[in-house]
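New to this. Explain these tokens.
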Amino acid sequence: MTGTERGPRERMVFSAAQLIRRDGVGATGMRDVAAHAGAPRGSLQHYFPGGKEQLVNEAVAWAGRYAGKRIARFMAGMSEPTPSGLFAAMVRQWTDEYETAGFLSGCPVVSATVDCVSSAPSTREAAAAAFATWRKPVAEALTGMGVPAERAESLATLMISALEGAIVMARAEGGVRPLTTVARELGPLLDAARES
């Protein structure tokens, strides 16, 4: 969906997610979001009567849905889907971004979690829901590739946790080594979880 296909509310949620992933919640102001979205400032109060907290929570929810939808695209792009192939695709999204655009952005869910969980319980709930929204299609994909259902959920948690940690480390180091390392090291474990 391009920016022209989104209405003003959707553009503001998308813009908030993009600014949060780059700058964090604290450094992302409502005016910044309106300017990035090309929306009048007054529309923020109209669409987000709960203020910045509501906007952040909706941006976090958007990010969880986006990540979850990417799983189907990753699966569709593999001729012979494997758990390691899925994880490699998840990682590649980030290595590609970092190699072309630099290490400017991370995950908006992680940024909001770090910045807001202690001060905004609703953001903690939004972040937990976003991770669950992402985890579910990962677990379903694993099950579809022969991973027993009772392991798929925990392996999905492991995959997302390893990816998010590697993203943070890659940004800190300014290099993709943490990302390529988790893909290489976790791949065999994921493939070994499939039933024969």
